[in-house]
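Q: Here's a chain of 301 amino acids. Please give me its 3D structure as C-alpha cells.
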Amino acid sequence: MTWTLEHTIAWDGNNSTNHDALVYLFDTYMPARGFTTAAHPDASAFKRKFQKTYTNTLAPGNVTMYWWVNWSNTTPTAFTVYEDGVFTATPGDLCTSTTNGLGAGFNTATYAFYAADWKFWVSDQIPNSSLVTRGKKVIWYDPGNTAIGAVHNGAWTAGNHNPTTNVFPFIASSYSMRFYNAPFLSGTTSVSYYVIPSFTWGGSFNSGMNDTLYQNFAMNYTTAASSIQSQTCYGFHINSSDALLHYPGSSLTTTDMTYSTGTSEEGVLCEVNGRWYIRTNSSMNRISFMFDMGTSEPDLT
C-alpha cells in the first residue's frame, strides 16, 4: 500500500504560498479526513480551530480532542498548534490557551526544503490518514486512527483546563509525536510527554536485533524522551503498511534510541527492495518513520 499525490501548492518564491498551503490543509485537506475544522473565534485569516472524536479504548464511550493553530500572518514562516484547553461557554469558543503547544518552522532559507512545493498525499489503505511534505521533509502526518486510549477523560468545566488526554499529530519540529496530560496524576498539567513505538529492546536484547521495518505497531505513552524503553501505557495503533517504523537494530546507542530524534531538519529518500520511502530522519542510525511512496521514485521537488 502506498501514498499517492493528491494536491500540490507550488512554491512561487513568496511566503504567501505558505499561507495558501495552511489554508488548504485546515479548510480542505483535514476535514476530508475525519477532523472538524472551523474559523478561529477572532476570525483571523491565519488562525483555525479543529477537533476530532475517537472511540476511547480505555473506557466506554468517546473522547473528543481540541486544538487551535496560529501562523501569525498571511506571509508565514512557521506555525504553532496548541491544545485548545479552556472554554467560556462551549468547547472551542475561546481558542486562546497557549499552555501546551507544538510549533514548526518551514521557511528559513537555510533549510534544504526552502524552495520546495507543498505536497498533500493520500493513502490507498487508510484514506483518513494524512501526509504533507516539502521536499523530503514531512511537515504533517496523522495516522487516521479512529480509536485512542484516553487515560484522562474527566468532566471539562468552563474556565478550567481540559482534563482530557490530548495527542498531537506528527508536526515538523525537533520532536516526533508528543502528547499532553496522560497518563499522569492530572490532566491539567502543562508538562509535555512523548508518544513512542511500543517495541523496545535494550542491553543484550538490543545487541541481537536486526535492522527491521515494522508495520501495524502500537504507540505508547511514556514518562520522558530519554529512551524508548521508558514507555508506560498504551495509546493507539498505526495500522497501515504505508506508514512504517524503522528500527536500526544493534547499531543503536542509548542516544539513538531517544525518540525525540525521530525527525531531522531534512528527511531522506530511500530505495529498499524496489520500493521508495520518505524517511523522517536522515541519520540511518536513528529510529524513524518511513512512508511507502511506491515502486517509482516520487517527485519531491
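Q: Can you summarize the key feature?
A: The chain has two helices and 21 strands.
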